[in-house]
Amino acid sequence: MVYQFFFGNKQVQNTPQTQLIPGRESEMIKGKSSGYMFEAGIWRTLRRCLLIGTGNGSYYATKWELTNDFVDVLEKAIAEDPDRVAQEIAYASDGRSINNSAPIWALVLLSMGETPAAKQAFQSIFPQVVRTASHFYEWMSYTKSVRGFGKIVREAGRNWLSQGDTKALAYQLLKYQQRHGFSNRDALRLFHAKPQTEDRDLLFKWVTNGWDTLPPESPTAALNQIWWYEWLKRNPDRTQEAISKGRLTHEMAAPVGKMDIAAWQLLFEDMPIGALLRNLGSLTEIGIFAYSKRCKHNIDRVEKILNSKEHLRKGRIHPIDILKALKTYRSGGSLGKSSKTWTPVPRIADILETALELSFDAIEPTGKVFMHAVDISGSMSYYSVSSINLTCCEIATTMALASAKAEKNYMIRGFSTSFIDLKINRSDSFSSAIKKASDLNFGGTDASSAYKWMIKNNFYADVICFWTDCESWAGSQHPTQALAEYRQKVNPDAKAIYISLVPNNISLVDSKDPNSWDIAGFDPSTPRLIQSIASGEL
To answer: Can you list the alpha helix ranges (DSSP code H) found in 81-177?
Structure first.
């Protein structure tokens, strides 16, 4: 089955094939770069796709190819073990994937599973994955495109609109009145949700018919925000009053009210962490962080929210979201789709740097010696995971530095067809480390060059971490051969960890090697997982 839906084609150069490992030819597959690698298997590939998504093409594959591979892997995994698929979807959706689109897409495919177990698994995780009305409309959009609204889908949609507290649902339906080609009215008409309480009945009547006449007061406490939203539509000059008394968010107030700096100040003081992170540039342009009497107070609030591990965790803020915000904010508006421009406030940028470090799971130092080998080949600068071209090289550098900051004994170098010093150390900011790596981002890919350099220089490492897309095709020696030589000549107990940053089905790890690991990148827990492997916990 082929899906070319939510997610051109770059010609791959003719490249030398990596030398095959004697006796292992049947266990290896040819990658899209023409090099030979091990097959990652459906469960490794599934996790990569869920965490990373397939919305952008890599250097070696278009987004259509990656998405169709994702579908193939999902179908095989669902047929083999739908409960495990559900667990993987829920794991990725819980703040670990770079956004919730891939888990929602996988949820749709799970609902298409042929067995009762697959249907039950879909129903069991639906509320965990579809948490907001925005997620709900995205799920409806994907469902319409690939399967239609059958019995199980209608039941899931009806339950989502019927369960929980009416005030919370009213907040969602007001904040996200339409997304992805669907509106809240479309959802009610499609799923025929029946109100079980008077509050819910009033909410559904507002969704379907609106209020031609504004009641003198909110008909119920659950609809208080909706009443103030409707009041603001009729009194746009009194925006501050509506925001203050109705606790309206910027999505509710901005489309219907007259927004000035005083109104934005009120919104800022109650802005959730996700919205705050996305709107730092706009708030700077408006003047919320201008050097005035309230400047220090406002920036102190940004620091209190963004530099709190508890707030970051509860808001499901992914490190990549912060990295994207940092890159966008430092650009002053030259990146991304916004037409706004601003002069970055240095302290805000510093707060984002700290937030980025805090967004990774807590890392305990192991005392081991680490070599972080960052793939700086040309292919790593091609794949981007956001609209502002956040490349794999930038993400690899960020995650390698986050891991290295917890250890005293480490080195960070870059490999392409050679292994070079990136001059990155723990004292670097994430921004400066990214610039150092990006300035040297070119060439072919030879992961074995790292081992060759360590052998030549007798560099004793307990753990060698490769941050890569796994497409190692250059050179005369396969990385597993070079690793075997390193263990023979330098450290027989060396552990090798390959962190894949592209949603493909290849691996540089020989499954027969008990001291080599393949893990998916982009997960906030990746640095901690590396530390656990290093210390022997895994």
So the answer is: 82-93, 101-111, 116-129, 133-146, 151-162, 166-175
Q: Where are the beta strands (DSSP E) in 11-122?
A: 28-30, 36-39
Nearest to 47 by CA among 504, 525, 390, 513: 504
Q: Give the Å distances, CA to CA, from 184 to 19, 137, 139, 461.
A: 57, 8, 13, 57
**Which long-range contacts link 225-229 to residues 24+ away (Cβ below 8 Å)?**
225/170, 225/171, 225/174, 225/252, 226/170, 226/174, 229/174, 229/253, 229/256
Residue 308 DSSP label: -
- Tell me if 468 sits within 8 A of 506, measured CB to CB: no
Q: Which two tokens stand for residue 244?
A: 């203050």
Assess whether pLDDT exceeds 90 at residue 362: no
Higher model confidence: residue 338 or residue 206? 206
Contact 277, 324 (CB under 8 A): no
CB 152 within 8 A of CB 116: no
Q: Single out the residue of 169, 96, 97 nearest to residue 127, CA to CA.
A: 169
* Edge-to-edge strand ranges of the sheet holding 370-375: 419-421, 410-415, 370-375, 463-468, 495-500, 516-520
pLDDT tens readout for residues 429-487:
999 999 999 888 766 778 899 999 999 999 999 999 999 876 665 557 888 999 999 99
In which residue are the tokens 């990549």 written?
A: 320
What gap in Å lies between CA 530 and CA 538, rounded to an integer? 9
Rounded Cα distance between 180 and 164, Å, is: 24
Flag whether pLDDT at 360 surpasses 90.
Answer: no
Average pLDDT, the chain: 86
What's the token pair of residue 152?
A: 């199980």
Cα separation, 299 vs 288, in Å, equals 9
Alpha-carbon distances, residue 21 vs 185, 440, 474, 490, 511 (angstroms): 60, 30, 15, 21, 14
Kindly give the pairing relationship between strand 178-179 and strand 182-183: antiparallel
Q: What is the C-alpha separation between 8 and 63, in angstroms, rounded?
A: 9
Q: Is the pTM of this model over 0.90?
A: no
The residues near 266 (Cβ < 8 Å, ≥ 6 apart) are: 240, 243, 244
The phi, psi pair for 3, rounded to 5°, reads -120, 125
Residue 457, SS3 per DSSP: coil
Query: Cβ(279)–Cβ(485) under 8 Å?
Result: no
> For residue 137, what pLDDT is reported?
97
Q: Radius of gyration over alpha carbons of the chain, in Å?
A: 25
Contact call for residues 81 and 134 (beta carbons, < 8 A): no
Count of other CB atoms within 10 angstroms of residue 459: 18
Distance CA 525, CA 259 (A): 40
Residue with tokens 């972080």: 372
For 164-194, write each residue's pLDDT tens digit.
899 999 999 999 999 999 999 999 999 999 9
Residue 307 has, within 13 A of its CA and on its CB side, a CA count of: 14
